[in-house]
Amino acid sequence: xxxxxxxxxxxxxxxxxxxxxxxxxxxxxxxxxxxxxxxxxxxxxxxxxxxxxxxxxxxxxxxxxxxxxxxxxxxxxxxxxxxxxxxxxxxxxxxxxxxxxxxxxxxxxxxxxxxxxxxxxxxxxxxxxxxxxxxxxxxxxxxxxxxxxxxxxxxxxxxxxxxxxxxxxxxxxxxxxxxxxxxxxxxxxxxxxxxxxxxxxxxxxxxxxxxxxxxxxxxxxxxxxxxxxxxxxxxxxxxxxxxxxxxxxxxxxxxxxxxxxxxxxxxxxxxxxxxxxxxxxxxxxxxxxxxxxxxxxxxxxxxxxxxxxxxxxxxxxxxxxxxxxxxxxxxxxxxxxxxxxxxxxxxxxxxxxxxxxxxxxxxxxxxxxxxxxxxxxxxxxxxxxxxxxxxxxxxxxxxxxxxxxxxxxxxxxxxxxxxxxxxxxxxxxxxxxxxxxxxxxxxxxxxxxxxxxxxxxxxxxxxxxxxxxxxxxxxxxxxxxxxxxxxxx
Length: 489
Fold this sequence. Notes:
By secondary structure, the chain is mainly alpha-helical. It is 46% helix and 6% strand. It has 20 helices and five strands. A five-stranded parallel sheet has the order 3-2-1-4-5, sandwiched between helices. The radius of gyration is 24 Å and the shape is globular.
Protein backbone atom coordinates (compact mmCIF):
# COMPACT_ATOMS: atom_id res chain seq x y z
CA UNK A 1 0.00 0.00 0.00
CA UNK A 2 1.47 3.41 -0.98
CA UNK A 3 2.57 5.72 1.79
CA UNK A 4 1.17 9.19 2.24
CA UNK A 5 4.49 10.71 1.18
CA UNK A 6 4.65 8.95 -2.18
CA UNK A 7 3.58 11.55 -4.74
CA UNK A 8 0.99 11.24 -7.46
CA UNK A 9 2.10 12.56 -10.85
CA UNK A 10 -0.33 14.38 -13.14
CA UNK A 11 0.91 14.34 -16.72
CA UNK A 12 -0.72 17.26 -18.53
CA UNK A 13 -0.98 17.10 -22.33
CA UNK A 14 -3.87 18.61 -24.33
CA UNK A 15 -5.84 19.31 -21.13
CA UNK A 16 -4.32 22.53 -19.81
CA UNK A 17 -6.92 23.44 -17.19
CA UNK A 18 -7.79 22.87 -13.54
CA UNK A 19 -11.59 22.60 -13.69
CA UNK A 20 -13.29 19.47 -15.02
CA UNK A 21 -9.91 17.75 -14.88
CA UNK A 22 -10.60 14.14 -13.85
CA UNK A 23 -6.91 13.16 -13.79
CA UNK A 24 -5.96 16.07 -11.55
CA UNK A 25 -8.96 15.48 -9.29
CA UNK A 26 -8.04 11.79 -8.93
CA UNK A 27 -4.47 12.65 -7.94
CA UNK A 28 -5.59 15.16 -5.33
CA UNK A 29 -8.13 12.70 -3.90
CA UNK A 30 -5.31 10.30 -2.97
CA UNK A 31 -4.23 12.83 -0.33
CA UNK A 32 -0.66 12.49 -1.56
CA UNK A 33 1.56 15.37 -2.62
CA UNK A 34 1.20 16.06 -6.34
CA UNK A 35 3.73 16.62 -9.11
CA UNK A 36 2.21 18.37 -12.15
CA UNK A 37 4.27 17.96 -15.29
CA UNK A 38 4.17 18.81 -18.98
CA UNK A 39 6.49 17.07 -21.44
CA UNK A 40 7.31 18.84 -24.69
CA UNK A 41 7.84 15.85 -26.94
CA UNK A 42 9.15 16.15 -30.48
CA UNK A 43 11.14 12.92 -30.31
CA UNK A 44 8.68 10.04 -29.95
CA UNK A 45 7.97 8.13 -33.15
CA UNK A 46 5.07 9.43 -35.20
CA UNK A 47 4.21 12.48 -33.11
CA UNK A 48 3.44 15.47 -35.29
CA UNK A 49 5.39 18.62 -34.38
CA UNK A 50 3.19 21.61 -33.64
CA UNK A 51 2.88 24.38 -36.21
CA UNK A 52 4.02 27.91 -35.55
CA UNK A 53 0.68 29.33 -34.41
CA UNK A 54 0.02 26.38 -32.10
CA UNK A 55 3.45 26.76 -30.55
CA UNK A 56 2.65 30.40 -29.80
CA UNK A 57 -0.61 29.38 -28.15
CA UNK A 58 1.01 26.56 -26.19
CA UNK A 59 3.56 28.95 -24.65
CA UNK A 60 0.85 31.21 -23.29
CA UNK A 61 -1.41 28.33 -22.26
CA UNK A 62 1.37 26.69 -20.25
CA UNK A 63 2.17 30.03 -18.65
CA UNK A 64 -1.47 30.45 -17.64
CA UNK A 65 -1.64 26.91 -16.26
CA UNK A 66 1.53 27.43 -14.23
CA UNK A 67 0.07 30.59 -12.72
CA UNK A 68 -3.19 28.82 -11.86
CA UNK A 69 -1.39 25.94 -10.18
CA UNK A 70 0.84 28.30 -8.22
CA UNK A 71 -2.21 30.11 -6.82
CA UNK A 72 -3.46 26.92 -5.14
CA UNK A 73 -0.13 25.62 -3.92
CA UNK A 74 0.97 23.57 -6.92
CA UNK A 75 3.73 23.88 -9.50
CA UNK A 76 4.06 23.05 -13.19
CA UNK A 77 7.33 21.34 -14.06
CA UNK A 78 8.33 21.13 -17.72
CA UNK A 79 10.42 18.41 -19.34
CA UNK A 80 11.61 18.08 -22.92
CA UNK A 81 12.24 14.87 -24.83
CA UNK A 82 10.64 11.49 -25.49
CA UNK A 83 7.75 11.56 -23.04
CA UNK A 84 7.37 7.89 -22.11
CA UNK A 85 10.91 7.31 -20.84
CA UNK A 86 10.99 10.70 -19.11
CA UNK A 87 7.74 10.11 -17.24
CA UNK A 88 8.83 6.63 -16.21
CA UNK A 89 12.23 7.89 -15.06
CA UNK A 90 10.62 10.68 -13.03
CA UNK A 91 8.10 8.31 -11.44
CA UNK A 92 10.88 5.97 -10.35
CA UNK A 93 13.04 8.81 -9.01
CA UNK A 94 10.11 10.21 -7.04
CA UNK A 95 9.00 6.78 -5.78
CA UNK A 96 5.59 7.82 -7.09
CA UNK A 97 2.51 5.87 -6.09
CA UNK A 98 0.74 6.64 -9.38
CA UNK A 99 0.77 8.53 -12.68
CA UNK A 100 -2.48 9.85 -14.13
CA UNK A 101 -3.33 11.48 -17.44
CA UNK A 102 -6.12 12.39 -19.84
CA UNK A 103 -6.48 10.04 -22.79
CA UNK A 104 -5.37 10.90 -26.30
CA UNK A 105 -6.76 9.38 -29.49
CA UNK A 106 -4.14 9.65 -32.25
CA UNK A 107 -2.31 6.48 -33.21
CA UNK A 108 1.18 7.73 -32.28
CA UNK A 109 -0.07 9.21 -29.02
CA UNK A 110 -1.80 5.98 -28.05
CA UNK A 111 1.39 4.05 -28.77
CA UNK A 112 3.39 6.37 -26.49
CA UNK A 113 0.82 6.06 -23.71
CA UNK A 114 0.57 2.27 -23.96
CA UNK A 115 4.32 1.88 -23.69
CA UNK A 116 4.48 4.31 -20.77
CA UNK A 117 1.70 2.42 -19.02
CA UNK A 118 3.52 -0.89 -19.52
CA UNK A 119 6.84 0.52 -18.28
CA UNK A 120 5.25 2.09 -15.23
CA UNK A 121 3.33 -1.07 -14.38
CA UNK A 122 6.54 -3.09 -14.64
CA UNK A 123 8.09 -0.69 -12.12
CA UNK A 124 5.17 -1.27 -9.76
CA UNK A 125 3.72 2.21 -10.25
CA UNK A 126 -0.03 2.61 -10.63
CA UNK A 127 -1.43 4.16 -13.80
CA UNK A 128 -4.89 5.57 -14.47
CA UNK A 129 -6.14 7.36 -17.56
CA UNK A 130 -9.33 9.40 -17.89
CA UNK A 131 -11.63 10.81 -20.52
CA UNK A 132 -11.36 14.56 -20.18
CA UNK A 133 -11.50 15.58 -23.83
CA UNK A 134 -14.66 14.05 -25.31
CA UNK A 135 -18.30 13.64 -24.39
CA UNK A 136 -18.15 9.97 -25.39
CA UNK A 137 -15.26 7.62 -25.95
CA UNK A 138 -14.79 6.65 -29.63
CA UNK A 139 -15.31 2.96 -28.85
CA UNK A 140 -18.58 3.61 -27.05
CA UNK A 141 -20.47 4.96 -30.08
CA UNK A 142 -21.04 2.10 -32.52
CA UNK A 143 -23.44 1.02 -35.22
CA UNK A 144 -25.89 -1.78 -34.48
CA UNK A 145 -23.42 -4.08 -36.23
CA UNK A 146 -20.73 -3.09 -33.75
CA UNK A 147 -18.72 -1.05 -36.25
CA UNK A 148 -17.65 2.58 -36.19
CA UNK A 149 -19.69 5.26 -37.93
CA UNK A 150 -18.52 6.70 -41.24
CA UNK A 151 -21.17 9.40 -41.59
CA UNK A 152 -21.72 12.23 -39.14
CA UNK A 153 -25.53 12.38 -38.80
CA UNK A 154 -26.12 8.77 -37.68
CA UNK A 155 -23.05 9.03 -35.47
CA UNK A 156 -24.41 12.07 -33.66
CA UNK A 157 -27.87 10.55 -33.30
CA UNK A 158 -26.31 7.49 -31.69
CA UNK A 159 -24.11 9.63 -29.43
CA UNK A 160 -27.09 11.72 -28.30
CA UNK A 161 -29.02 8.54 -27.48
CA UNK A 162 -26.38 7.56 -24.94
CA UNK A 163 -26.65 8.61 -21.28
CA UNK A 164 -25.83 12.30 -20.84
CA UNK A 165 -22.27 13.06 -19.69
CA UNK A 166 -21.85 13.73 -15.99
CA UNK A 167 -21.66 17.25 -14.65
CA UNK A 168 -18.26 18.94 -14.90
CA UNK A 169 -15.91 18.70 -11.94
CA UNK A 170 -15.04 21.86 -10.00
CA UNK A 171 -11.50 23.20 -9.94
CA UNK A 172 -9.50 22.20 -6.85
CA UNK A 173 -9.01 24.90 -4.22
CA UNK A 174 -5.70 23.51 -2.95
CA UNK A 175 -2.89 21.24 -4.05
CA UNK A 176 -0.18 19.79 -1.85
CA UNK A 177 2.86 20.21 -4.05
CA UNK A 178 5.60 17.59 -4.03
CA UNK A 179 9.30 18.51 -4.15
CA UNK A 180 11.26 17.72 -7.30
CA UNK A 181 13.35 14.58 -6.76
CA UNK A 182 17.08 15.17 -6.77
CA UNK A 183 17.87 12.34 -9.19
CA UNK A 184 14.98 13.05 -11.58
CA UNK A 185 15.35 14.18 -15.22
CA UNK A 186 16.34 17.81 -15.60
CA UNK A 187 13.57 20.34 -15.86
CA UNK A 188 13.54 23.15 -18.43
CA UNK A 189 11.97 26.58 -18.33
CA UNK A 190 9.09 27.57 -20.56
CA UNK A 191 11.40 29.95 -22.40
CA UNK A 192 13.81 27.08 -23.05
CA UNK A 193 11.18 25.55 -25.35
CA UNK A 194 11.54 28.56 -27.71
CA UNK A 195 7.88 28.41 -28.72
CA UNK A 196 7.49 32.11 -29.53
CA UNK A 197 8.46 33.66 -32.88
CA UNK A 198 11.25 36.21 -32.66
CA UNK A 199 12.87 37.00 -36.01
CA UNK A 200 10.45 38.04 -37.30
CA UNK A 201 7.82 38.34 -34.58
CA UNK A 202 4.70 37.68 -36.63
CA UNK A 203 2.38 37.15 -33.64
CA UNK A 204 1.11 40.71 -33.14
CA UNK A 205 -2.32 39.89 -34.53
CA UNK A 206 -2.54 36.81 -32.34
CA UNK A 207 -1.75 38.81 -29.23
CA UNK A 208 -4.44 41.35 -30.13
CA UNK A 209 -7.05 38.67 -30.77
CA UNK A 210 -6.58 36.05 -28.08
CA UNK A 211 -6.16 35.43 -24.37
CA UNK A 212 -4.92 31.83 -24.10
CA UNK A 213 -5.59 29.94 -20.90
CA UNK A 214 -8.47 28.58 -18.87
CA UNK A 215 -9.68 32.00 -17.71
CA UNK A 216 -9.77 33.23 -21.30
CA UNK A 217 -11.74 30.14 -22.33
CA UNK A 218 -14.35 30.61 -19.61
CA UNK A 219 -14.63 34.28 -20.49
CA UNK A 220 -15.22 33.41 -24.17
CA UNK A 221 -17.90 30.86 -23.28
CA UNK A 222 -19.70 33.23 -20.92
CA UNK A 223 -19.61 36.07 -23.43
CA UNK A 224 -20.90 33.83 -26.21
CA UNK A 225 -23.82 32.48 -24.20
CA UNK A 226 -24.80 35.97 -23.07
CA UNK A 227 -24.25 37.91 -26.28
CA UNK A 228 -24.40 35.71 -29.38
CA UNK A 229 -25.71 32.20 -28.74
CA UNK A 230 -29.34 33.30 -29.02
CA UNK A 231 -28.84 33.88 -32.75
CA UNK A 232 -26.25 31.21 -33.44
CA UNK A 233 -28.27 29.17 -35.94
CA UNK A 234 -28.91 32.21 -38.13
CA UNK A 235 -25.52 33.91 -37.83
CA UNK A 236 -22.95 31.10 -37.53
CA UNK A 237 -22.22 31.17 -41.27
CA UNK A 238 -21.74 34.94 -41.45
CA UNK A 239 -18.04 35.90 -41.28
CA UNK A 240 -19.01 39.57 -41.29
CA UNK A 241 -20.84 39.13 -37.98
CA UNK A 242 -19.58 38.05 -34.52
CA UNK A 243 -21.81 34.98 -34.49
CA UNK A 244 -19.55 32.14 -33.38
CA UNK A 245 -18.17 31.09 -30.01
CA UNK A 246 -14.43 31.48 -30.86
CA UNK A 247 -13.74 28.57 -28.49
CA UNK A 248 -11.88 26.32 -30.91
CA UNK A 249 -8.28 27.14 -29.82
CA UNK A 250 -9.29 26.79 -26.17
CA UNK A 251 -10.82 23.39 -26.93
CA UNK A 252 -7.77 22.35 -28.93
CA UNK A 253 -5.50 22.79 -25.91
CA UNK A 254 -8.03 21.57 -23.38
CA UNK A 255 -8.38 24.89 -21.59
CA UNK A 256 -12.07 24.09 -21.52
CA UNK A 257 -13.78 20.73 -21.85
CA UNK A 258 -16.67 19.82 -24.16
CA UNK A 259 -18.54 18.70 -21.04
CA UNK A 260 -18.28 22.22 -19.61
CA UNK A 261 -19.53 23.70 -22.87
CA UNK A 262 -22.42 21.24 -23.08
CA UNK A 263 -23.60 21.83 -19.53
CA UNK A 264 -23.27 25.62 -19.72
CA UNK A 265 -25.23 25.65 -22.97
CA UNK A 266 -27.98 23.42 -21.59
CA UNK A 267 -28.19 25.66 -18.52
CA UNK A 268 -28.55 28.74 -20.73
CA UNK A 269 -31.20 26.94 -22.75
CA UNK A 270 -33.14 25.93 -19.64
CA UNK A 271 -33.05 29.50 -18.34
CA UNK A 272 -34.50 30.81 -21.59
CA UNK A 273 -31.38 32.76 -22.50
CA UNK A 274 -30.65 30.59 -25.54
CA UNK A 275 -33.45 29.22 -27.76
CA UNK A 276 -33.52 25.47 -28.24
CA UNK A 277 -32.79 25.65 -31.96
CA UNK A 278 -29.66 27.69 -31.37
CA UNK A 279 -28.51 25.48 -28.50
CA UNK A 280 -28.93 22.33 -30.60
CA UNK A 281 -27.07 23.83 -33.54
CA UNK A 282 -24.17 24.88 -31.35
CA UNK A 283 -23.97 21.54 -29.55
CA UNK A 284 -24.02 19.81 -32.93
CA UNK A 285 -20.74 21.58 -33.70
CA UNK A 286 -19.29 19.97 -30.59
CA UNK A 287 -20.68 16.80 -32.13
CA UNK A 288 -18.64 17.32 -35.29
CA UNK A 289 -15.50 17.53 -33.14
CA UNK A 290 -16.56 14.27 -31.45
CA UNK A 291 -17.02 12.68 -34.86
CA UNK A 292 -13.59 13.84 -36.00
CA UNK A 293 -11.99 12.13 -32.99
CA UNK A 294 -14.13 9.06 -33.62
CA UNK A 295 -12.64 8.93 -37.12
CA UNK A 296 -9.09 9.61 -35.93
CA UNK A 297 -9.25 6.79 -33.40
CA UNK A 298 -10.46 4.31 -35.99
CA UNK A 299 -8.39 5.70 -38.89
CA UNK A 300 -5.10 6.87 -37.33
CA UNK A 301 -3.60 7.91 -40.69
CA UNK A 302 -6.37 10.41 -41.33
CA UNK A 303 -3.94 13.23 -42.10
CA UNK A 304 -1.98 11.18 -44.62
CA UNK A 305 -4.36 8.70 -46.25
CA UNK A 306 -7.66 9.19 -48.05
CA UNK A 307 -10.47 7.89 -45.86
CA UNK A 308 -12.20 6.74 -49.04
CA UNK A 309 -9.58 4.68 -50.84
CA UNK A 310 -11.05 5.36 -54.29
CA UNK A 311 -9.60 8.87 -53.98
CA UNK A 312 -6.13 7.37 -54.23
CA UNK A 313 -6.81 7.51 -57.98
CA UNK A 314 -7.60 11.25 -57.93
CA UNK A 315 -5.56 12.99 -60.68
CA UNK A 316 -4.30 15.96 -58.67
CA UNK A 317 -2.43 18.70 -60.52
CA UNK A 318 1.16 19.57 -59.77
CA UNK A 319 0.57 23.26 -59.00
CA UNK A 320 2.87 26.10 -59.89
CA UNK A 321 4.51 27.68 -56.87
CA UNK A 322 2.96 31.04 -57.71
CA UNK A 323 -0.52 29.52 -57.45
CA UNK A 324 0.16 28.07 -54.01
CA UNK A 325 1.78 31.30 -52.88
CA UNK A 326 -1.26 33.27 -54.08
CA UNK A 327 -3.60 30.99 -52.12
CA UNK A 328 -1.49 30.99 -48.97
CA UNK A 329 -1.16 34.76 -48.84
CA UNK A 330 -4.60 35.82 -50.06
CA UNK A 331 -3.83 36.97 -53.59
CA UNK A 332 -6.11 34.70 -55.63
CA UNK A 333 -8.28 37.50 -57.02
CA UNK A 334 -11.36 36.08 -55.29
CA UNK A 335 -12.07 38.47 -52.40
CA UNK A 336 -13.77 36.04 -49.98
CA UNK A 337 -10.91 33.56 -50.42
CA UNK A 338 -8.29 36.25 -49.98
CA UNK A 339 -10.02 37.67 -46.90
CA UNK A 340 -10.06 34.24 -45.28
CA UNK A 341 -6.42 33.50 -45.93
CA UNK A 342 -5.41 36.91 -44.61
CA UNK A 343 -7.60 36.50 -41.52
CA UNK A 344 -5.77 33.24 -40.90
CA UNK A 345 -2.35 34.86 -41.23
CA UNK A 346 -3.34 37.82 -39.04
CA UNK A 347 -5.28 36.16 -36.23
CA UNK A 348 -4.35 32.47 -36.32
CA UNK A 349 -7.92 31.41 -37.01
CA UNK A 350 -10.45 31.59 -39.82
CA UNK A 351 -14.23 31.65 -39.78
CA UNK A 352 -15.51 28.12 -40.34
CA UNK A 353 -17.64 28.95 -43.39
CA UNK A 354 -14.64 30.62 -44.98
CA UNK A 355 -12.45 27.62 -44.13
CA UNK A 356 -14.71 25.57 -46.35
CA UNK A 357 -14.60 28.17 -49.12
CA UNK A 358 -10.81 28.54 -49.08
CA UNK A 359 -10.30 24.78 -48.85
CA UNK A 360 -12.67 24.16 -51.74
CA UNK A 361 -10.82 26.74 -53.80
CA UNK A 362 -7.50 24.96 -53.32
CA UNK A 363 -8.83 21.44 -53.81
CA UNK A 364 -11.49 22.01 -56.47
CA UNK A 365 -10.60 25.23 -58.31
CA UNK A 366 -6.85 24.63 -58.33
CA UNK A 367 -7.17 20.82 -58.19
CA UNK A 368 -4.43 20.58 -55.56
CA UNK A 369 -4.09 17.63 -53.18
CA UNK A 370 -5.92 18.39 -49.92
CA UNK A 371 -2.86 17.36 -47.91
CA UNK A 372 -1.00 20.49 -48.98
CA UNK A 373 -3.78 22.65 -47.57
CA UNK A 374 -4.04 20.61 -44.41
CA UNK A 375 -0.33 21.13 -43.79
CA UNK A 376 -0.66 24.92 -44.24
CA UNK A 377 -3.58 25.11 -41.85
CA UNK A 378 -1.68 22.93 -39.37
CA UNK A 379 1.12 25.48 -39.33
CA UNK A 380 -0.96 28.66 -39.27
CA UNK A 381 -4.02 27.81 -37.15
CA UNK A 382 -3.98 28.34 -33.39
CA UNK A 383 -6.68 25.67 -33.24
CA UNK A 384 -4.87 23.20 -35.51
CA UNK A 385 -6.51 20.07 -34.19
CA UNK A 386 -5.16 16.58 -34.98
CA UNK A 387 -8.67 15.28 -35.63
CA UNK A 388 -10.69 18.27 -36.84
CA UNK A 389 -8.10 19.58 -39.28
CA UNK A 390 -7.65 16.46 -41.46
CA UNK A 391 -11.29 15.38 -41.10
CA UNK A 392 -12.51 18.76 -42.31
CA UNK A 393 -10.07 18.89 -45.21
CA UNK A 394 -11.09 15.42 -46.30
CA UNK A 395 -14.75 16.42 -46.03
CA UNK A 396 -14.19 19.33 -48.42
CA UNK A 397 -12.06 17.24 -50.77
CA UNK A 398 -14.72 14.52 -50.89
CA UNK A 399 -12.29 11.85 -49.76
CA UNK A 400 -13.54 11.80 -46.18
CA UNK A 401 -16.46 10.51 -44.18
CA UNK A 402 -19.46 11.83 -46.05
CA UNK A 403 -22.39 10.36 -47.91
CA UNK A 404 -22.35 12.46 -51.10
CA UNK A 405 -19.34 14.77 -51.46
CA UNK A 406 -18.76 14.26 -55.17
CA UNK A 407 -20.51 17.33 -56.57
CA UNK A 408 -19.74 19.82 -53.78
CA UNK A 409 -17.76 22.71 -55.33
CA UNK A 410 -18.12 26.08 -53.61
CA UNK A 411 -18.53 29.08 -55.89
CA UNK A 412 -16.43 31.77 -54.15
CA UNK A 413 -18.41 34.64 -55.66
CA UNK A 414 -21.81 33.28 -54.68
CA UNK A 415 -20.54 32.26 -51.26
CA UNK A 416 -19.23 35.77 -50.70
CA UNK A 417 -22.48 37.39 -51.77
CA UNK A 418 -24.54 35.07 -49.59
CA UNK A 419 -22.52 35.12 -46.38
CA UNK A 420 -20.82 38.52 -46.60
CA UNK A 421 -23.57 40.44 -48.40
CA UNK A 422 -22.30 43.94 -47.60
CA UNK A 423 -18.65 43.02 -48.05
CA UNK A 424 -17.73 43.96 -44.47
CA UNK A 425 -15.56 40.87 -43.98
CA UNK A 426 -13.74 41.43 -47.26
CA UNK A 427 -13.18 45.11 -46.51
CA UNK A 428 -11.71 44.26 -43.11
CA UNK A 429 -9.07 41.87 -44.40
CA UNK A 430 -8.65 43.06 -48.02
CA UNK A 431 -8.42 46.82 -47.42
CA UNK A 432 -7.40 47.59 -51.00
CA UNK A 433 -11.03 46.86 -51.94
CA UNK A 434 -12.62 48.84 -49.11
CA UNK A 435 -13.92 51.63 -51.37
CA UNK A 436 -15.40 49.34 -54.00
CA UNK A 437 -19.24 49.40 -54.01
CA UNK A 438 -21.10 46.36 -52.70
CA UNK A 439 -22.21 45.45 -56.21
CA UNK A 440 -18.69 44.43 -57.21
CA UNK A 441 -16.95 43.75 -53.91
CA UNK A 442 -17.01 39.97 -54.48
CA UNK A 443 -16.13 40.08 -58.18
CA UNK A 444 -14.07 43.24 -58.81
CA UNK A 445 -13.03 42.09 -62.29
CA UNK A 446 -16.62 42.76 -63.43
CA UNK A 447 -16.65 46.34 -62.13
CA UNK A 448 -16.68 49.21 -64.67
CA UNK A 449 -13.38 50.95 -65.21
CA UNK A 450 -14.68 54.15 -63.62
CA UNK A 451 -15.86 52.33 -60.48
CA UNK A 452 -12.44 50.72 -60.10
CA UNK A 453 -10.73 54.07 -60.61
CA UNK A 454 -12.86 55.80 -57.97
CA UNK A 455 -12.20 52.96 -55.54
CA UNK A 456 -8.46 53.16 -56.14
CA UNK A 457 -8.31 49.59 -57.46
CA UNK A 458 -6.00 48.69 -60.31
CA UNK A 459 -6.42 45.05 -61.19
CA UNK A 460 -3.12 43.33 -61.74
CA UNK A 461 -1.32 45.92 -59.63
CA UNK A 462 -2.82 46.54 -56.18
CA UNK A 463 -5.31 43.67 -56.45
CA UNK A 464 -5.03 40.46 -58.43
CA UNK A 465 -7.01 39.30 -61.39
CA UNK A 466 -8.54 35.88 -60.65
CA UNK A 467 -5.81 33.26 -60.95
CA UNK A 468 -8.31 30.75 -62.34
CA UNK A 469 -11.73 30.90 -64.01
CA UNK A 470 -14.11 29.29 -61.54
CA UNK A 471 -16.59 27.91 -64.10
CA UNK A 472 -13.87 26.14 -66.06
CA UNK A 473 -12.15 25.01 -62.89
CA UNK A 474 -15.40 23.53 -61.63
CA UNK A 475 -15.83 21.49 -64.81
CA UNK A 476 -12.23 20.31 -64.53
CA UNK A 477 -12.74 19.30 -60.90
CA UNK A 478 -15.95 17.40 -61.62
CA UNK A 479 -14.27 15.53 -64.45
CA UNK A 480 -11.36 14.60 -62.20
CA UNK A 481 -13.69 13.50 -59.43
CA UNK A 482 -15.73 11.44 -61.89
CA UNK A 483 -12.57 9.65 -63.00
CA UNK A 484 -12.15 8.24 -59.49
CA UNK A 485 -15.46 6.45 -59.90
CA UNK A 486 -14.43 5.15 -63.33
CA UNK A 487 -11.16 3.80 -61.94
CA UNK A 488 -13.10 1.89 -59.30
CA UNK A 489 -15.40 0.23 -61.84
